[in-house]
Amino acid sequence: MRSRELREKVYDLSCGLLATVIDVVLFGFLYEAEVISGSYSRSRIGLAGEAALEKGMEMAIDKETIKRAIWKVTHQHLIRRQRKKGQEFWQITEEGKRRLQSLLPRYQEKRTWDGHFYLITFDIAEKNRRHRDLLRDYLRRIGAGMLQISVWLTPYDPRGILKEFIKKRNLSGAVIVSDVGKEGSIGEEDLDDLIRRVYKLDELNERYRNFIGLIKNRELDKPQVAFRFLSILADDPQLPFELLPYDWQGKRAYEVFKEKTQQQ
Q1: Strand 117-122 to 175-181 pairing
Q2: CATH annotation of 117-198
Q3: Burial of 231 per CB tally in 10 Å (0-12, 13-18, 19+)
Q4: What is the rounded CA–CA span in Å between residue 225 and residue 38?
Q5: pLDDT digit string (tens) for 192-201?
Q6: Alpha-carbon distance 241 to 67, whole Å?
């Protein structure tokens, strides 16, 4: 299987969260906590990795690819072998956890808000199209929502985190951040309706609701639960709680996720 096809397959099977077999292997170890290695008919590490993957999801990837990934995570010290009660166990290391933490979204239980909204506008020439696309992707990742192609909205002050991005790509003067203030308005649209539309909150809320229903009605393994929840969280701008609909399901979905992935 060619590398591009493999990345696409892994990305699809991991609900759009991960793009390499190595990271999916680590994900399996993270949410299974420890995997008992089996007989010597294959490498013990290989069996442990396959077990983590098979318990996490039905991966249609050949075993040799999986075993190569397991070999890599072992030699990169992302998993380690331990013995307990005469049995060997494979566990993810702190370094392995840090690698995943840099890739996976995290639910923000505290969301400090100054009550202001901020508009981000930019005018980047076509010759710098790559930087323009990177900026849009970056704005999505920091929780901004698109009003227009070159006009974005966020309730969190973006000036500090955008400063380094702008400097690194020599975009000074091309990106402007405006503080709309606490009493400011944006056009004639009601602010609640604007937020719902820009951030697609109704669609996002329905995904959380479906996740909760799925967990209630199906018996899923920890990695399956985690993949599904985190794939929704990756699209959640995690707005201040004051701005969310009264029937917001995100917090309840997070509680279900914790309950199912932390139980022994």
Answers
A1: antiparallel
A2: 3.30.70.240
A3: middle
A4: 25
A5: 888 999 999 9
A6: 44
